[in-house]
Sequence to fold (124 residues):
Amino acid sequence: MTDRPEGNIFIYCDDPSHAKHVAVTNFYPVHGSPGHWNERYASRAARGDKQSGQTIVDDAPLREGSRARQQKGRDVRSRYLLTCRKCGGGRAVPAREENLFAVLDALASKGQSKVALAQVAANL
Ligand SMILES: [Zn+2]
Fold:
């Protein structure tokens, strides 16, 4: 077992079809940037290369308190596609970062360090 960053929240899939919990990914809080999280993918689930986040650029107005970054003069932000490797992409949970981070903040405030993907989806 590798060390996990302080405040790490582990997301797993507990679909009844799985014999045991399947790692999805991890997020850990960014020091000095409250409400901001970085992904640290579960090593066995990562399958090599990709994290689930992707950068999107769209025209939807940001809600108050959400974050956008400037990239090449445009506002960009990230969206995550949280995928259980056993359930597959058809059941992946899409989450804009501002929504996902709010869920993570709420879990952290309750001292939780792990959460089922279905619970994340229910709270987005
Ligand atoms: Zn699953």
